[in-house]
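ZP: hey, is the adenosine monophosphate complex queued? I don't see it on the tracker
AM: it wasn't, my bad. submitting now with these inputs:
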Amino acid sequence: MRLVNEADVNGKRVLLRVDFNVPIKDGKVTDDTRIRAVMPTIRYLMDNNAKIIIVAHQGRPKGEGYERAYTLKPVAKALGTLIDKDVKLTHDVLGMQTTADVEALQPGEVLMLENIRFDKREKSNDPEFSGRLADLADLYVNDAFAAAHRAHASITGVTELLPSYAGFLMNKELGTFERMLAHPTAPFVAILGGSKVSDKIKVTSRLIEVVDVLIIGGAMCFTFLKAQGYSIGSSLREDDWLEPAKELIEKAKAEGTQLLLPKDFVIAGTISDDAETSIVDIADGIPEGMMGLDIGPATAEMYKNAITDGRTVFWNGPMGVFEVAPFAGGTRQVATAVAMNSRATTIIGGGDSIAAVNRFGYNDLVTFISTGGGAALELLDGTHLPGVVALDKE
Ligand code: AMP
């Protein structure tokens, strides 16, 4: 994989793919972490007199043209503030005006194409669409680690047509995860949470092979607990995944990996700010009609101790319904334990875990915050990310 600083970008038109899929409220970017993460590459290109054409997506538009809800206007504005320079946004993805905007672009200037997913040919990796994108530029840089698991036109298609390079963020993300897997300082502790086992079955299986301790929280733990015969009441579970969950428990035993599951829960009948909550021990079972919505205090203590003992710690996914105050405690305690472990290399991935760390003000205390949730999990489960493979072939 060639890095952007190996390219001669002086005066060249550079098509820069980024993942600026950031939260937006009332026309304003509410968290610019993903934009700031690409600043080293943007600054490098600006300082080296490249004409920068940024390609990004936002949300999931239909792919049939402009949709106001998904315009990149707020993103272009936020980027402009960071680089202290106007960032022009094109009217449509590809069109006569876009070609004219690119022609007018001066060295060191930044132009942003409107949401690339306004055109459905992006997702279908349409060769003609890739060709038109490639025509805009002299070379291509991919700094969109968080989108590297998608074989889309602006991620893989264009690499067939332009000299292609990785950006600094892409390089850093890949290097961090590679080192974490290849040379983790023991004990290696991974924490997985979130809603579905089915989404995380592959990564759970792979992590069992490489970590010393695997901690499971969030709704995904109920499938494991039910598979072991516990009563889980009305908690979220995936009944089709009981067998695979059982197999993972067996696999952990065979590998000598400590698999930690919650032993108590915060339960309630409804998910609301004023829900009436109580604590139950899983040995006593969760009553029918009640849901486990956060790990309980004994579990939080057990998880905290395991995390504190870790020397490499990876965390993806909340421990409970952390968006709702009565069920945020477990996620906060895990975030605190990860952030306070100054002797470990701590790596966090996934939107919810990052939001939790940011919300509690711990972002400077962890070693690395990955910008990729899905991409990071696929990388960890051994999948070759299409966007990375496409850069590797040169
Ligand atoms: P995911 O998208 O799979 O990463 O899951 C994140 C979501 O899981 C968050 O929105 C949480 O509210 C939700 N979640 C975590 N724990 C639970 C739980 N015990 N019951 C229901 N939802 C949960």
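AM: back. The chain has a mean pLDDT of 95.
ZP: great, adding it to the tracker
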